[in-house]
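Appendix B. Chain record.
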Amino acid sequence: MTLRKIVADITTLAVDAIVNAANPGLLGGGGVDGAIHRAAGPALLAACRALPEVLPGVRCPTGEAVITPGFGLPARHVIHTVGPVWRGGHDGEPALLEQCYRRSLQLAHAYGLDTVVFPAISCGVYGYPAEAAAVVAVRSVRSVLARHPHLEVMLCARDAAMGEVLARAISGA
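Structure tokens predicted for this chain:
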């Protein structure tokens, strides 16, 4: 069972899957979502558009996950998950964020993937406090790794400051 943090550009990693902190429409956006779509090329957008809407404009509800090929990315697959928007922590945000990690890793297991890299889901424009999100991420991933110890999971920070937040959460500090 492996869980570690890395500081890197998630779009450059040659792994089985990177996770996209997506919006419900799966049509790209800002932050890591936009970076993944730009790096993967137009085929990723076409694949996302081909996914059925479960509600008008929603291909992936908050807390759920779907998978596509990686197309132009070094990663073989992209697992798209929609994190919760932070509303103070009393609107089910921790449970929804935990579900993002669990559902993503369930998909990885179902597809026989071994290496999965997550960004800091919901910590950008969705406003989830980084320290709290990191604790949820580590707890969620560890609960799945207990059942699927073959998985190698990395929590990817885009900068050293977020890397320290992730390192503290992993060490339990």
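Further analysis of this model is presented in Appendix C.
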